[in-house]
């Protein structure tokens, strides 16, 4: 599939807008999102899965900018949230409560109360203790919390250990044997209504095999529950669909994914839910950064840029690879690292590889930064978080202002004493 970030006459453009123009106007580091890419990815998945009329809940954790959420909500997407804050954002962006599902292992009483008040579609329950808490809170306000148990099917998604979630050793969900008991308990609780099953295996997953393996494992339980529990009607197969982070890497084609999983879903007769984040937003975004200095050392060159691990932590946290390209095309190369100004040796965006030969003042674009980019940004080293821009065709708009130094101090006080 074609990227929405391409060179025209040697100048990198976001859709039809020159990236250099945006960097000059809004400064750097700068996140730029392509609205057309978000919509195309959403539609490609919805289309590939259309025979089961999928309910697509965009995983807000991957990119929670209000404009991004609204773009997808306008296409019909719901939201997968993992905190009260994400639920608040989803509602503010216009996602109807009946299209919101709430996952996460540590839902607090306040978060549960808020979600019950909003009357969301269902909670994804990750433990027996949580089941009891939801039931108690729901009873206290005279309602029922709709729930889907998150089963952990013990399947290897073949991804980084920090982004694997559906193996036995991971903290997420309950194993299949415990899930049976959890469903039995849930059916006895007055404050919950059992409406479905949920799983999420990890991310990014580059082949359909982990999904088909997991579906084969959970199908018998789904069939039984469907027979025994009249309200049991949803199967949410989670997110995790991979994208290409490297030029030579083939992304998971949604049509291949669909043709592998659909035969296992059709005859179940359940409503199918999906929670893609990265697949929709990952390649919809770039992080633009300006070169501050070029520093030579005996073994390599350090390109020191104005974006750092506080802006994009994926390389430091997951050893993730991001392609980094010059905003003004060049074929000259050098060998080295791209590093930020943060005082950590782990502060790098690229390590020991062939890079564009850039100079002080040049612009670089870090690709595939639309998911788990800005949302994981921090203020470490008292660095304000970057601005975010959305483009569509030749239009560009600031969708989140750059944080100022005053923003950094908001809420802090110095005791009189
Ligand atoms: C429960 C759940 N659903 C969906 C996702 C989204 O994953 P991805 O962005 O890889 O699609 C995650 C990611 O952590 C998750 O934990």
Overview of the molecule:
The chain has twelve helices and 21 strands. Strands 4, 14, 15, 16, 17, 18, 19, 20 and 21 form a nine-stranded mixed beta sheet that branches. A hairpin with an 8-residue loop joins strand 17 and strand 18. It binds pyridoxal-5'-phosphate. Pyridoxal-5'-phosphate binds next to helix 10.
List keywords for this structure.
single chain; 417 residues; alpha/beta; TIM Barrel; eight-stranded parallel beta barrel; 12 helices; 21 strands; binds pyridoxal-5'-phosphate
Beta-strand content estimate = 25-35%
What are the bound molecules?
pyridoxal-5'-phosphate
- What would the principal axes of the Cα set say about the shape? globular
What do we call the CATH homologous superfamily of the largest domain? Alanine racemase
CATH topology of the largest domain: TIM Barrel
Helix content: 25-40%
Question: What is the CATH class designation of the largest domain?
Answer: Alpha Beta
Query: Compute the gyration radius: what is it?
Result: 23 Å
Q: How many helix segments?
A: 12
Overall mean confidence score, pLDDT = 95
Describe how the helices and strands are arranged:
Elements: E1 5-8, E2 11-14, E3 17-18, H1 19-26, E4 30-34, H2 35-48, E5 55-59, H3 66-75, E6 78-81, H4 84-92, E7 100-102, H5 109-118, E8 122-125, H6 128-140, E9 145-152, E10 174-175, H7 176-188, E11 192-198, H8 209-228, E12 234-236, H9 254-266, E13 271-274, H10 278-281, E14 285-296, E15 301-305, H11 314-318, E16 324-326, E17 333-339, E18 348-356, E19 363-366, E20 387-392, E21 395-400, H12 405-409
Parallel strand pairs: 4-20, 5-6, 5-13, 6-7, 7-8, 8-9, 9-10, 9-11, 11-12, 12-13, 15-17
Antiparallel strand pairs: 1-2, 2-3, 4-14, 14-15, 14-19, 16-19, 17-18, 20-21
Helix pairs in contact: 2-3, 5-6, 8-9
Bound molecules: pyridoxal-5'-phosphate.
